[in-house]
Amino acid sequence: MNYVFSITLLAWLAFFPQQAQQDMQSPCSMQDMHQHAAKNQDTAAGALAQSAEQRHHALLDEERGAIGRGEGFGMAFAADHNGYPGPRHILDLQTELKLTPDQTAAVQKLFDEMKQQALARGQEVLQAEDELERRFRDNRPEAELREQVLRVASLRGELRWVHLRGHLAAAKLLTKEQIATYAQLRHGGHHGVGGS
Hints:
Elements (H helix, E strand, L loop, with lengths): L2 H13 L1 H9 L4 H10 L1 H28 L8 H4 L6 H6 L1 H4 L3 H37 L4 H30 L4 H12 L9
């Protein structure tokens, strides 16, 4: 069975399971199946492409929503994964981490400041993205489009830094033991600050 046929058959089974089940129950040869799959290859490929595009658009909408709410949406993964805990997650795990009242207050203050900065910078990112789309819609000159792309990239970098800086500051508020516990709870292993 060749690769294209295999993929087509799998796509057909995934997107049209009822039809595929009926087809499989009727007696037919491998050649009949191949012809049937080839006939429906465009339909299945179209469904796969549409599904991927829908997931992509849903992810973009999810990202926009998270930015609008001041959430990190994975922007600080490099820090979190390498032992620099996030303020929001520390607050969520304060019982397990056995935070002192002073630590809790300090982390809450850090989180509130980070969130405020992320909201402000996030609005700038969303506005810059909208402006980029408007410029493309208006068929603006290439130099102007490039300038706006660089503006969006710069603002996104600053927004990401807001979240990463929050993780750097949060790590200074915890003990090594608390950081190790955090890594175990979040990632199932020991990721000490600066470690892997």
